[in-house]
Each structure stands twice: as structure tokens, then as C-alpha cells.
Amino acid sequence: MLFYKLLFFYLFSLLAYGNVEIEISIKGFDNNKGQVLCAIVTEAKDFLKTSAKPVDEQIVKVENSQAKCRLKLAQEGIFAVSVFHDLDANNKLKTDAFGIALEPWGVSNNIPASSFGPPSFDQAKVDSKKQKKLTIHLNK
Fold first, then answer.
1. Neighbours of 127 (CB within 10 A)
2. Which SS3 state, helix, strand or coil, does residue 122 take?
3. In this predicted model, what pLDDT tens digit does every residue of 26-81 receive, in sequence order?
4. What does the H/E/C string look like for 4-73?
5. Nearest CA to 100 among 139, 47, 43, 65?
6. In the chain, where are the structural domains located?
């Protein structure tokens, strides 16, 4: 009997892994060119870092000036999302010599860029226990 209880909990834990889905609607496109890259992270050290490995990521097409990503988390908790409109479909955010984005981008909570730099993880963080659907408006 103990074996079956352990087996049940093991199988249940496998099903629960990656079971938290976050749906992101992206708006504010000027055209349907290229693609959209979406990424979700759970730690500040990984937010907006090209060298970081996101918890989940997805590439989607723009259709009718909109796009939707569905990203997964292993468990409920704090996360932040970043997206950008990859106009030339090269899987890289094009920036100028100062590192300022030349392609439209956005983050959870719709935090704009400022003269002090890009948004922080703390500004963009969301709790999946409270919110599983986000709308991100692109900054241009």
C-alpha cells in the first residue's frame, strides 16, 4: 500500500511540473514583419540579460498587429516577462552603440525605459498566484 501512495505522489508531482501557464498578449505593433521573442525569468540576475537562460521562451509570429505567447513556470511564484519585436528575424535585439533598443520591446507591468536605463526585475515582477494573463504594450 505504501508503494502505491508513493507512486501516486511521484506521478502527481510529474504532472504538476511546468503546470503554471502564463498567457501574454502583446499589442502595439506597427506591422506584421519578423517575429516576437518572449521570455520568462524568476530571478533578477536573469532579467534582460542576453547571457541568461530563461525559465521558458517562445518565438511567435505577429498576426493582425497582435501576438500571443504562452510560457510555463515550474511552480507558482514571482516572475517577469520580456518581449521584443524581432523585425529582421535574427533572434537578437538590435541596439545602437549605447545599448539602446532599436526594435520595439516590452516587459511585464508595461514599465517604459527611462534616461536611467532599462526597467528592473522589481519593477516588472508579477506573482503568478495573482495574475496569469498579461498584456504587454510595446515601447518604440
1. 11
2. helix
3. 999 999 999 999 999 999 999 999 888 999 999 999 999 999 999 999 999 999 99
4. HHHHHHHHHHHHHCCCEEEEEEEECCCCCCCEEEEEEECCHHHCCCCCCCCCEEEEECCECCEEEEEEEE
5. 139
6. 19-137
Phi, psi of 103 (to 5 degrees): -110, 150
Taking the chain, what is the end-to-end CA distance rounded to the nearest angstrom? Answer: 61
Is 75 within 8 Å of 127 (Cβ atoms)? no
pLDDT of 8 strictly over 60:
no
Mean residue pLDDT across the chain? 89
Name the residue among 53, 55, 46 with its Cα closest to residue 22.
55
CA 35 to chain centre: 14
Q: How far apart are CA 80 and CA 134, in angstroms?
A: 11
Say which CATH architecture domain 19-137 belongs to.
Sandwich (2.60)
Q: What residues pair up with 114 in beta bridges, in sequence order?
A: 117
Report yes or no: 128 and 79 within 8 Å, Cβ to Cβ: yes
For residue 124, what is the enclosing H or E element?
A: helix 121-124
